[in-house]
């Protein structure tokens, strides 16, 4: 019917807008990261600027997701220069996960919401650092945020670069901040990576 095709068109348009929005957010995060780097380089003589990263396009051919883990197999591996701990991203510089195991022509990626995933992050636009731990139920659990640090719903989180991953990759958006007793806040974030947007990803080669 006409309404059925209209609905399909609306869904396609929404997916397109979501992708375009993610790309824009990624550019903002990248620009901020470059500004922070340039400010640092102006103050620290003898430090060379980072080289442009090489990207290798890969495709997911299998996803494993249950109550214990969230992983994906990609169609390129050791023969293509992929190594363990390399960052895997999607359009807009959004972190999808990190390479965990490498085979000759494939590799296993631990996705950001996997409970084994732990990423050093920064709240965008601030110097507040924390750790994003994968949470299959909520997406991301943000650890080590004290009550003195200003964090609110809607804040974007990006990679800090302190754990070896590339700096200023988009990770997620804060969805919940809980006040309570103790030294640290309970902070939950929703990952920006979404498998429904397609199976094509990029590995950032060293």
Could you characterize the architecture of this molecule?
With 206 residues, the chain is an alpha+beta fold. The chain has one helix at residues 2-43, and strands spanning 54-65, 70-74, 87-90, 94-102, 107-111, 118-123, 129-135, 139-143, 156-159, 170-178, 186-191, 200-205. The protein has one helix and twelve strands. The chain has a six-stranded antiparallel beta barrel with strand order 1-2-5-4-3-12. A hairpin with a 3-residue loop joins strand 7 (129-135) and strand 8. Mean pLDDT is 84; it is low at 40-51.
Helix-strand makeup class: alpha+beta
- The global form is globular
Major sheet size, sense and barrel closure: 6 strands, antiparallel, barrel
Give the termini separation: 51 Å
How many β-strand runs? 12
Instruction: Report the uncertain regions.
Output: 40-51
Classify the beta-strand content into a percent band. 35-45%
Percent range of helical residues: 10-25%
Mean pLDDT: 84
Question: Mind sketching the topology for me?
Answer:
Blueprint (H helix, E strand, L loop, with lengths): L1 H42 L10 E12 L4 E5 L12 E4 L3 E9 L4 E5 L6 E6 L5 E7 L3 E5 L12 E4 L10 E9 L7 E6 L8 E6 L1
Antiparallel strand pairs: 1-2, 1-12, 2-5, 3-4, 3-12, 4-5, 6-7, 6-9, 7-8, 8-11, 9-10, 10-11
């Amino acid at each position: 019917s006409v309404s059925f095709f209209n609905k399909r068109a609306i869904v396609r348009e929404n997916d397109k807008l979501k992708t375009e929005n993610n790309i824009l957010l990624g550019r903002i995060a990248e620009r901020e990261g470059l500004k922070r780097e340039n400010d640092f380089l102006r103050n620290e003589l003898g430090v060379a600027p980072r080289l442009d990263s090489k990207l290798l396009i890969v495709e997911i051919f299998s996803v494993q997701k249950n109550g214990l883990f969230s992983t994906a197999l990609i169609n390129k591996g050791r023969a293509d220069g992929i190594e363990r701990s390399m960052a895997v991203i999607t359009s807009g510089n959004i972190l999808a996960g990190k390479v965990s195991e490498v085979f000759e022509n494939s590799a296993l990626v631990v996705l950001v919401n996997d409970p084994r995933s732990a990423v050093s992050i920064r709240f965008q636009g601030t110097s507040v650092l924390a750790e994003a731990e994968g949470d299959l139920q909520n997406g991301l659990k943000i650890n080590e945020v004290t009550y003195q640090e200003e964090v609110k719903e809607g804040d974007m989180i990006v990679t800090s670069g302190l754990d070896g991953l590339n700096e200023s990759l988009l990770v997620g958006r804060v969805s919940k901040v809980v006040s309570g007793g103790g030294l640290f806040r309970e902070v939950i974030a929703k990952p920006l990576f979404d498998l429904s947007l397609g199976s094509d990803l990029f590995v950032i080669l060293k």
